[in-house]
Structure formats: C-alpha cells, structure tokens
Design goal:
The protein is α+β, with helices and mostly antiparallel strands. The protein contains 2 helices and 12 strands. Strands 5, 7, 8, 10, 11 and 12 form a 6-stranded mixed beta sheet that branches. A 3-stranded antiparallel beta sheet has the order 2-1-3. It is rod-shaped and about 110 Å long. The N and C termini lie far apart (96 Å). The model has no long low-confidence stretch (mean pLDDT 80). This is DUF4124 domain-containing protein. It comes from Candidatus Accumulibacter affinis. Keywords: Signal. Residues 1-21 form the signal peptide.
C-alpha cells in the first residue's frame, strides 16, 4: 500500500521540483526510498536529468483567403409566373412559380432562392427556377384575401440577398358551390 504512495510522490516531485528549481532529497526506510524537498539526516540529493521538453511549433502564418473563381454577379431576376395582375385559380393555394435569372443560379457556392408570400418568408430555400408553393406553405402564411404579393430573392449561404426581383401582385380565385 505504501509503495504506490511513494511512487506517486516520486513522480510528483520529479515533475514539480524542476519546475520550482528545488532540490530533491532521498532517504531510505524499511519500505524503501523516501523522497522529500527537505533534507533529513542521512539524505542524499537526487540529481535529476534536464527536462525533456519541446517547444510548440510556431503556428504558420494565416494566408489571406484566396478569392474563388470569379463568378459574375446576378444581373436579372424576374417572376414570370404568376404574372403581375394575373388571376390564379386555386382552391388549396398551391401555386406554380416560374422565374428567370441571369446568370444561372450558383448552387455550388450555396446560393438559393427564397420566397416571400404576403410579406412572410417561406421556410423552404429553393434551388430551381420552376417550383410550386405548396398548399401547406400557402395555408401557413397567405393573407385571407383575394389579392396577394409574391417576392423572390437570390441569397448566399449566410442569407444575404444578392439580387431581388420586382414583386408581383396577383389574385387567387377559388371556386364556389354557387
């Protein structure tokens, strides 16, 4: 039982003593060697080898971020369908949307299309120019009126708008039983 304590003390003193630049003394008793930082009768100073230490490698200098391949900025984004002032026939609110964009959408760099319906952003980011607003999306955000507003924008990975299309106002006609 005493031997593990002695080994622990030895290890602790081997680590702590050089750090504090204090001498280490060894004496013997019935159980074996005893190490201390205080000299006792019959103690001998233990000469410790120099620490085997290694400096951390210097961090390499941070190179400035190299710009990726030059990609032309978006120049045109328009909503083709539904047209401005158009009437859409839909009982559920499902709505086809068609856009034009120049140059093409850069999905490889993380660009996407976001849609706002009646001033509320839809949660789904789109990566195609032809898509549908689902009935569930419609029910969640559309105003309870016949006139609606649709806006689209191309955004980068962080959500910053790169180009915004002119908004369109359109009307939804629902069939009635009359």
């Amino acid at each position: 039982m005493r031997k593990p304590i002695v080994v622990f003390l030895l290890a602790a003193s081997l680590v702590a003593a050089p750090a504090a630049a204090q001498p280490v003394y060894e004496t013997r008793d019935r159980a074996g060697p005893v190490f201390s930082d205080r000299p006792a009768a019959g103690a001998t100073e233990v000469v410790l080898p120099p620490l085997n230490r290694m400096d951390s490698p210097a961090e390499p200098p941070v190179a400035p971020a190299s710009p990726g391949p030059a990609v032309a900025a978006y120049t045109t984004l328009n909503i083709v369908q539904p047209g401005n002032g158009a009437t859409v026939h839909s009982n559920t609110g499902q709505l086809a949307v068609q856009l034009t964009l120049e140059p093409a959408l850069q999905t490889a760099r993380g660009d996407a299309i976001v849609v706002k319906l009646d001033n509320t952003r839809l949660p789904t980011r789109r990566t195609t120019l032809n898509f549908e607003i689902t009935a569930a999306e419609w029910q969640g955000v559309a105003a309870d009126s016949a006139e609606h507003q649709l806006e689209v924008a191309v955004v980068d990975q962080a959500g910053a708008a790169l180009i915004v299309a002119p908004s369109v106002r359109f009307y939804v006609h629902r069939a009635s039983r009359l």
